[in-house]
Amino acid sequence: MCLDAITVMLTSMFAGFLGSLIGLGGGTIVIPILTLLGVPLKQAIANSMITLIATSSGSASAYVRERLTNVKAAMYLEIFTVIGAIVGATIALLVPSRYLYFFFAAFLSSSFYGIRRKMLVKTPNHDAAQDRFSKWLELEGSYYDESLGRVVNYKIVKAHVGGPAMIVAGLAAGMLGIGAGAFKVAIHELILKMPPKASSATSNFIIGMTALAGSTVFIASGLVNVVLAGSIAVGATVGSMTGSRLLPKIGDKTIRILFLSVLIYLILQMVYKGVTSP
Amino acid sequence: MKRPALEKIISYILIVGVMTSLIMEAVGLVLYAMDKGTTEIDLSDPEAYISSQDFFAYVIGVATLTLSDFNYASVMALGLALLMLTPYLRVVASVIYFAFSRNYKYVVITLIVLAMLTVSLITH
Asked: Is A144 within 8 Å of chain B by CB?
């Protein structure tokens, strides 16, 4: 069991690469791998959470400039994810690790939504009437969709439901040290009725803030090791940047099979660790 | 009156903050390998751990430490602190921007986020 900075960097690179190919953060992959390398689960969660700021903000910067991100919606939803993440991180430090393994396995399973979504990406037009609260919050947007060759206009609905629902996403993110991107995207699309591209870009933007909120708790826990966190940050960011560049060149089927096998392996691994941990 | 778009300001803050902190982490890793003569991570080495109760006091402390004693631990700790300050600064910038735009609804919304983050950073 040799924990080496180069091994950590390379595996984080792989996780970031794979994560960005499927449109999810690398945290969900990095954390189980770190525990395989001998890092205690809570420490893996705390160190991975800080590095999520780097992986998400790197790509968020480009999406914001291209105006795919709905900044106002993000600011409003962040009120709820920040509360969730701070409470979640506090819970993570208090509960026994064996429960966290099971939560983690359960949450990994939610990544299947991301895969299903990739298979039926469509951009509907939303002409539905906006409710008063969403209108009051000025929640609407437009962006140019290259693949459709036209400007997509949309209006967000049910902000009074979507906001509080984000507390749950924040809780899970803070507790498990991940972005919970699949969960956020599901809320954006199913409740708020955001189009897919705006939804992913906004989720990515919010993940940086959720990661900061969780980190405000973890930074004081005495679990953050600069060499460990530094190796993950450098590896995961390089990996996710490479992944997003290569994305258009790799076949969808290859990605899906690769991701599914890794996902199933990691779920089994976390369940096994949960069962065998004291 | 023409003001740069909020999107542009946020985009710059994010990319500059992340890139600077990653460079510091990379420099720190090289220093670590040279200093220890190995790339193995020793989880029981107290020197490599961040301990902060008040984040802002910690940032000032580690920044002054880096100036006087430039080693892997101080550079990497400062890099991670900068990483955490990146999304924090983008909220600060948003508050200021909405205040200039006289969009008081969003001044309040962004201030709520800023207040929660600040309280959590100071009290943990």
From this structure: no
Please report the residues numbered 221 through 260 in chain A whose beta carbons come closer than 8 angstroms to any beta carbon of chain B. Answer: 222-231, 233-234, 237
Domain parsing of chain B, residue ranges: 6-38+53-123
- Selected for mutation to probe chain A from B23, B54, B120, B121 (highest A CB count within 10 Å) is B120
Q: A160-173 burial by CB neighbour count: b if 16+ within 10 A, else e?
A: eebbebbbbbbbbb
**% of chain A residues with pLDDT over 70:** 89
Query: How high is the ipTM of this complex?
Result: 0.91
| A146 backbone φψ class: left, alpha, beta (φ>0; ψ -120 to 50) | alpha
Rg for chain B, CA atoms, rounded: 18
Residue from B5, B18, B9 nearest B91 by CA: B9
> A159: which 2 tokens?
């902000």
Whose structure tokens read 């395989």?
A36
Instruction: For residues A152 and B22, give the distance between their C-alpha atoms in angstroms, rounded to a whole number.
Output: 35
Q: What is the pLDDT of residues B65-81, one digit of tens each?
A: 888 888 899 999 999 99
Beta bridge partners, A154, equal: A141
Instruction: Pull the structure tokens for residue B112.
Output: 């709520």
Hey, of A59, A71, A139, A227, which one would you mutate to test binding to chain B, going by the most B CBs within 10 A of its CB?
A227
* pTM of the entire predicted model: 0.90
The C-alpha atoms of residue B89 and residue B104 are separated, in whole angstroms, by: 19
Q: Are A16 and A99 in contact (CB under 8 A)?
A: no
| Residue-wise pLDDT tens digits, B44-101 | 888 889 877 788 988 898 888 888 888 899 999 999 999 999 999 999 999 999 999 9
The count of other CB atoms within 10 Å of the CB of residue A38 is: 12
CB proximity list for A242: less than 8 A, separation 6 or greater: A13, A16, A17
Q: What is the DSSP string of A216-242?
A: HHHTTTT--BHHHHHHHHHHHHHHHHH
- Note the residue count of chain A: 278
